[in-house]
Design a protein that fits this description.
disordered N terminus, 38-stranded antiparallel sheet, 2% helix, mainly beta
């Protein structure tokens, strides 16, 4: 939706000042819309429970009075949901309770020593990894250890993976698991040859990753061929059919996993420069048409939502729906706007200096 293109503004002075219910902007200094506030964006922006300065300093509020502050990548501090304080000065010392999928991250004189936990197995639902001189020496609670790149053992659920002089020689053994391809083994002598031989997966790799042939599923219901990757790819399975002649051509047909019915197609040319969907055509960055949206870049952009159609000229950003640009910058090059509802059509030229339109008859 066009956050900065609504024509029924309460007050507007050129592209510099605009005010209406729930929205105010003094461009390019500041803008505010509902729970979002920008100051000389992208210098500063804030939302209901966070703010960011110069894409480096960030503050985030959490549950139960918790918060986090960081200046990437050297400093962080905060209070976790249990009320415990934490801090870190990278690479000297630090403790962080949760970074992405990592829990209880500790480091000292990184990469000299590191310790962290992951939500996987273990008596308390986590697996702890210790590392000295990362990435050369590490060990885990489950008996996995690594002296990279000479030798390593990695245990993953029902499988055990090993390597010698990674990535030259790797191999693995698997036990039966309903969520994976079943019992069997695999090995690879890189970059010459590799083989996967499991109950529900067979794969042969020659000069990996360039040439490979794979069959998966109880009755080989899914097959794939790369010959060579990434230039030619062929896939056939319950969820999708795909043929790729990269970067010239690609066609993908999706199916519903539960019913096996067709759920969509896309044909691409020039990698993703031209994309033909069932209900939308894209020629990046110049043309998008379909799904209630149209763009002829850099001249015109329009969108229909909830029975209201809005359009504008010019539209210099070839990516749709970036609210911060709409609030702070788009008005400077938006010379004409049009809004159509089921009962009225309104036009605005030169930031509302010239207006016309009215009720439909």
């Amino acid at each position: 939706m066009f956050a900065s293109a609504l024509l029924a503004a309460a007050f507007q002075i050129g592209p510099f000042y605009q005010q209406k219910p729930g929205y105010a902007a003094l461009r390019p200094l500041c803008a505010s819309e509902l729970e979002d506030t920008d100051v000389m964006w992208p210098v500063f922006t804030s939302h209901r429970d966070w703010w960011r300065f110069c894409l480096l300093a960030h503050w985030q509020a959490g549950e139960n009075g918790s918060y986090q502050f960081d200046i990437s990548p050297v400093w962080f501090n905060g209070v976790d949901r249990g009320g415990e304080s934490y801090w870190g000065l990278f690479p000297l010392y630090g403790h962080h309770p949760h970074v992405m999928l990592v829990h209880d991250l500790d480091f000292a004189l990184w990469p000299l020593w590191t310790r962290y936990s992951m939500p996987r197995g273990g008596e308390d639902g986590r697996m702890t990894t210790n590392s000295v001189l990362f990435p050369f020496f590490s060990w885990r609670d489950d008996g996995s250890w690594s002296f990279w790149p000479v030798y390593g053992v990695n245990r993953q659920r029902e499988s055990v993976h090993r390597y010698v002089f990674w990535p030259l020689f790797t191999w693995a053994s698997y036990r039966e698991d309903r969520d994976t391809a079943g019992e069997g083994s695999s090995w690879m002598l890189w970059p010459l040859f590799g083989r996967v031989d499991r109950a529900r997966e067979k794969q042969t790799l020659v000069l990996p990753p360039f040439f490979s042939s794979a069959r998966a599923g109880g009755n080989a219901s899914e097959t794939s061929l790369r010959c060579p990757w990434p230039f030619f790819g062929l896939e056939s399975g319950a969820r999708r059919e795909r043929i790729s002649l990269w970067p010239l051509y690609e066609h993908v047909h999706w199916r519903s996993y539960s019913k096996g019915e067709s759920s969509g197609d896309v044909t691409r040319f020039g990698w993703k420069l031209v994309e033909l969907y069932d209900d939308e055509t894209r020629v990046f960055p110049f043309w998008v048409s379909g799904r209630g949206y149209f763009r002829l870049w850099p001249f015109w952009e329009s969108e229909e939502e909830g029975g209201v159609s809005r359009g504008r000229f010019l539209s210099l950003v070839p990516i749709r729906n970036i609210p911060q640009i709409d609030r702070n910058w788009a008005k400077f090059w938006t010379f004409y706007e049009r809004e159509e509802t089921p009962v009225a059509i309104r036009h605005s030229l030169f930031w509302g200096i010239i207006r016309w339109g009215g009720v439909k008859w």
